[in-house]
Amino acid sequence: MDYLSSINEGLFFKIFNLSGQNKILDLFMVTGANYVIFGIFFLCLAAFFFGSIKDKKAFLLTILSLFLGFILLKTIGTLIFEPRPFQTFSITPLVTLAPNDSFPSDHTLIASIIAFSYIFYKSKYGVPMGFASIWVGFGRVYSGVHYPFDILGGIIMGFLAVCLAWIIKKKISF
User: Fold this and answer.
1) CA 123 distance to own-chain centroid
2) Structural domain for 167, as ranges
3) Least crowded by CB within 10 Å, which of 9, 110, 124, 158?
4) Phi and psi at residue 81, in whole multiples of 5°?
5) Element of type H or E holding 94
6) How many domains does the chain have?
7) Locate the Phosphatidic acid phosphatase type 2/haloperoxidase domain: which residues (predicted)?
8) 32 in a domain, yes or no?
């Protein structure tokens, strides 16, 4: 586990050390870390109200997946506690955040669930949401509030939640 921790911390510092070099890039990354998730939600709602039938189905898959993702998140949270980078190291993150559990990234989990739900339905919104969720995850590391493995964990758990929801959806057929 020490080897993986050193890789995780090394990647973190390679990304985090880019911050503070360029105000425009910092603003772009802080926007991704904190606010893009609201854009993803807005796009999700817009797709539901104005999109095709598959967009409406993707929205329903998203709701079920978010519920399952929350259960996965709470289960993992009871088994693994990883402090945030600013709790472990003497760094100042670009965003203010409570010193709580870092693994997995809740923002990345939620963004990934939404993106994967639309990707599963081959919606035209899936790819833009996928790029936006990557922006969220990368922004969280760049801003100093998550390690890269927290982001990877959020993506994997998001994918698993959507896969489980897809299986359940097949059983109840929506």
Assistant:
1) 19
2) 21-172
3) 124
4) -125, 120
5) none
6) 1
7) 58-166
8) yes
